[in-house]
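To: structure desk
From: M.T.
Subject: fold request, one chain
Message: Could you run this one when you get a chance? Sequence is below, nothing fancy, just the single chain.
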Amino acid sequence: MKRVIGILLIFVLMFVFAACGGDSGDSPVRTISPDETGTSSEQETPDSDSPDDVSTGEQVSSPEVTVESTFLLDQDGLKITAKELIEDPIWGTGIAVLIENDSDQNLGVQCNSLIINNYMIPDVLFSSTVAAGKKANDTIYLSSPALEAAGINTISDIVISFHVFDGDSYETLFDTDEIELRTSAYGTVEQPAMDDGRELFNQDGIRIIGKYVDEDSFWGAGILLFIENNYGENIMIQCDNMSINGFMVTPFFSSTVHDGRMALDEITIMSGDLEDNNIERIEEIELVFNIIDPDTFQTLFETDPISFTIE
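Reply: Done. Structure tokens follow.
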């Protein structure tokens, strides 16, 4: 099933790139109103064509970053070696890997999680199946849009965990712990927390910041959130009971954030939901966040209803 989802994701991303290829003009991105205390700053939407550092406004140089050939995994006859960083004109930055299957069964490998400069990278585009006794060269793509959203101009630290399964039955064989891969820029980058915006939630070490609303995202409308997890455990955040301008809508959102990590992720509202409720301009949003244990899927706690307006 994960392999099927991975293949579907490839086609979705292809359509995304195709949709973004034309001249779209000014993007209808609006800020989430600051809270009454005035402690949150307005989010100024970065120009995707500008290489400026979105946190400082200063021009950022992007020196060539490399990795040394490194064993990432050697377990139960499966070896994975990171060979080098590559640049693809469509998919962006990737890690070229050599996968060696010395076991007597066909094996599949995917990424359970990918963390770059302490930011969770969602929707990792990687799935590889290697027959028993064979090898494969493949690439783990690092999702350029996610890097840009997090203000990551130079990759210094990559943390990966793998999901390994039977290539025929898709039965899970094992999941690895986090594996760190340091680049030549390690120790030279101070990655900013992109936490400007309105604080929607702050409890037990979990912070959720509303940054902006894009009313013309690929699927309909998107609400960008900054999430910081110092809860002491990995968490999954979902939302429920969501209304826009007083009308109930169905949000599509699930973000897993490991302990001590940050994430930028988007709540998606489908265009059909907006059209059915005659919502042409988003003015007010109300929702509830559910904090979930990602291993057991048990709810840890649920927030009170959170309301905020859009400027």
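Reply (cont.): The first strand starts at residue 29 and ends at 31. Let me know if you need anything else for the meeting.
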